[in-house]
Amino acid sequence: MTRRTFVRGAGWGVLFVALLLALAACKPEMKPPEEVMDTFVAAWQKRDYAAMYPSLTNHVKESVTQEAFVSRHQNIYEGIGLTELNITAAPTEKDPNAKTDQIRYKLHVEMKTSAGPIEFNQTATLRKEERAWRVDWSSSFLFPQLKDTDKVRVQTLPAKRGEILDRQGHGLAINEDQWEVGLVPEKMAEPSDESVSKLATLLSLKPEDIRAKLGASWVKPELFVPIALIPKGDPRENELLTVQGTAYRTKRVRSYPLGAAAAHLTGYIGKLNERELEKRKDQGYRPDDWVGKTGLELTLEDRLRGRDGQRIYITDAEGRDKATLLKRDPVDGEDVKLTIDTGIQRAMYRELENDAGAGVAMQPLTGELLALVSTPSYDPNLWISGISAEQWKQWTENPDKPLFNRYASAYAPGSAFKPITAAIALEQGALDPNEEKSITGKQWKKDTSWGNYYVTRVSAAASAVNLAKALMYSDNIYFAQVALGLGAERFEKAAGKFGFGEKLPLPLAVDVSSLSNAGIKKEILLADSGYGQGEVVMSPLHVADAYTVFVNGGNMIKPVLEYDGRTTGEVWKSGLIRPEVSRMLTEQMKEVIQNPAGTGRAARIDGLTLAGKTGTAELKQKKGESGQENGWFVAYDTDKPKLLVALMVEKVEARGGSHHLAGTIKALFRGFAM
After folding, report:
1. Start and end of every Penicillin-binding protein transpeptidase domain (predicted)?
2. % the chain with pLDDT above 90
3. Largest CB tally within 10 Å, which of 251, 407, 490, 526?
4. Phi/psi of residue 330, nearest 5 degrees
5. Measuring CA to CA, which residue among 343, 341, 338, 313 is closest to residue 328?
6. Quick one: which of 444, 649, 411, 645 has its CA closest to 533?
7. Predicted TM-score of the model (pTM)
């Protein structure tokens, strides 16, 4: 009995030992520490935070859930605009006194953020737990100064948008502190409609627009609800504060001191829409950024726009600043000083504001642009404070199109083009200025091949017409014959040198001028082109610049909009005509204004000699029909020239044609001379 019992017990013992050995053999092999750390770092660099979590020690997992671990990494890294993350890990030198269940690694972390690069060194500890090496993680892995209860914040340090100034430093587009008028719902009188009604009256707003703002989803009784902007010192300030619930706060905004007088030149800024944001997303723009929408605000956007700075910092649990991780200072936008003269700009706008037209004033020797006006206009400040639906409707439904920029748009120049035709023909030797052409009556056609088509002149006062009389009386027939004498090929080649088909060298969006749509292939089109009709189109800005050839010995001066204090003009097109031709045409254009029989005689000023040319461009579908007429008047002073003005006004057919502009020319030159 004893022997059998002993044998049976020994058998079970052997079986138990074998079972233990088998179980031990089934346990997974413990991964080496360097493999654990490499796996953890690889997941970290990929920003696969969920894959990092299993590598953490049990102690860490007890204090932070996987969801919280992933969320903390995502919130911090996305908040700082992380774009790149590179981490290297290397074991530190062994300390003979260190515990055998711990291994320390030196981490080097490099990252690129929206504020710039950040790099730091950190120490990580691997601990042996349950036959596995695990990472003893803490928030300091993200940044050495960061504790578990701390937060990482990002502060935008706004840059100043560059200002647009005139030649004397007066503001055209500036940054200005204004009052933002608003309502605090809980402080409004009962019934609140009384406050809304009073405020609407004082601010020239519709009550329903104010109610819509008060009804926004974010509005709470204690919050300030912005309603409108007014300049500081506005006479309505005190009266607005008598409306119960009204409050002010200062806001830095874009302001346009000249308002409508320079609206098409300065343009305005506005918030990015989705399409614009998509287009500019690689340039660091944010959804709430304001950008140039039109005018110089748009074309100079890259220079005017500053680069916001940023500070990435840590706050403790109470919200107190603890450490700055990175700071990038803001870079203000560039201030741009223009050649524009505020006085001339305002004066030209006053003269034209009741017309649909455009005006350009420039210094003809230097090319400096002194005024650029388009009328009717609009107040660009309204874009900053907010455009109402009613205001937008008024602008867009106005048949005179106040948002349309006329000084930069191409029009038929009419008789304002005749001096260019004369200059080309004289330079080509195709015109004897003293030869008198026999022209009788007001209508002429070359021969029967023209069918029913004919050229009409305004006055039949002269039947023997030389160049001087043709310019003085603005004879369409004479210049049609001159163009025919040149021929289409010579006409197009020579006229094209005046900048046709080219963009004007200016930071402005200006229509490209054109002599024809597809080449001058017919005699009738050539004849009409000779006196600025047919398919010839030029912007008022280009017309003004083209006339500089008559002041600069045949050189066309480069138009200049940025002021640098220089007085010597840069030539854009050299040697277009000989100096003697330019002098001859100036003398003959004096007669247009100085001679009592000249078409521009109403602009004559005692003591000041002006030269120039009037013009009327007809917009009609067929000969003999009545249609819209646009008037032109270009003039410059001839004794030490300082001012050249080009005007274009639409719909002058019932207002004396181009003579309607004579008073404006006279007023501008008188004002400039004073």
Report:
1. 357-658
2. 77
3. 407
4. -70, 150
5. 313
6. 411
7. 0.84
